[in-house]
# Entry
Amino acid sequence: MPESKRTRIGLIGCGFYAQNHLHAWSDLKTEGADLVAVCDLDGAKAEAAAKQFGAKAYSDARAMFTAEQIDLVDITTQMNSHKALAALAAEHKVGAIVQKPFAPTWADCIDIVETAKRHGTWLAVHENFRFATGMRRVRAVIDSGAIGQPNWARLGFRTGYDVFKGQPYLAEEKRLVILDVGIHVLDLARYFLGEVKHLTCETQKRLPHVKGEDTATVMMRHNSGAVSIVESTYAARKIPDAFPETLLEIEGTEGSIVVGRGDKMQVTTQGIFFEENIGSPLLSWTSRPWHNSQEAVLHTNRHMLNRFRAGDAADTSGEDNLKTYALVEAAYEAAASGQSVKPPQWIAKS
Ligand SMILES: NC(=O)c1ccc[n+]([C@@H]2O[C@H](COP(=O)([O-])OP(=O)(O)OC[C@H]3O[C@@H](n4cnc5c(N)ncnc54)[C@H](O)[C@@H]3O)[C@@H](O)[C@H]2O)c1
# Structure
């Protein structure tokens, strides 16, 4: 690919989950992505990533934007820093991919979207669950018409896996499971069943060492009339544990899809049954039990790269992701009030 057509990538935040992004960008080199710079406030982390992946290291994002010609920046820091870093990218006319959760508050998410709009820069949220091989396959079955019109679903991420070991900051979050992982499952519910009219939610704190809710049960009415239940917990005690699989059942007018443990998809279509393994293959840098999530990072980054180059919005653009974040907001409000809540809407200024 000629140099002029290649895309120069920068990455900010070389922590725990960023390792997957770094490997994914490295795999995408053959498709025209050049990871040119990495940045972390912790200089040693930036140096280590730079050495392993052949990029230049920075410990200050502004210095990186000033010194490098970056086309697209991948922001893989925790949510508190997303607004400032996305604004810096927009100011430098650089496209940005922001890890989920978009930001700690609805107002900050809107601010990030409006800032990119004002600067005319490309913006997407790294919502990777819907890009996983298995979830794409489920969507393909729905799109094929095999189950008819989907009208009921249950989607669950229920685990007792010690997520706090790799991400100790989670134990301190006042908004925990819905914002951390429920957000992915809510996004899947949108992906499979469309937008949501209203929802109710019950939360629980079952783990003694965490500040926020570790369990949430959300019930939603979609605009299509379908009803879904979205469950997320870090407090399940089960052997075998399903981490980090999303288990689901989707029922439709002509059949159903059940995804159970071990990436097994069972489909009933007009009285006929078939079964398929929908797990991701292991890549040189992925390992169980994270492999589905890790491979989804590769698919997400590839999608972002191609859409950015084409000048088209990503499926999970900033604006699209506001609709997922709106479900998070509505779920917390519903849990606090005990009422059914309509998700907030963002209306573009122009
Ligand atoms: N999609 C998924 O499945 C998934 C899984 C895990 C984590 N995540 C998300 O990934 C994000 C990062 O989580 P993590 O666990 O890797 O966090 P982490 O704390 O391990 O890594 C974040 C890194 O960013 C650096 N950093 C913070 N502010 C910075 C700044 N202004 N400039 C440069 N570097 C800065 C920190 O020094 C740290 O090394 C979170 O938003 C989290 O929710 C997503």
The CA atoms of residues 194 and 222 lie 7 Å apart.
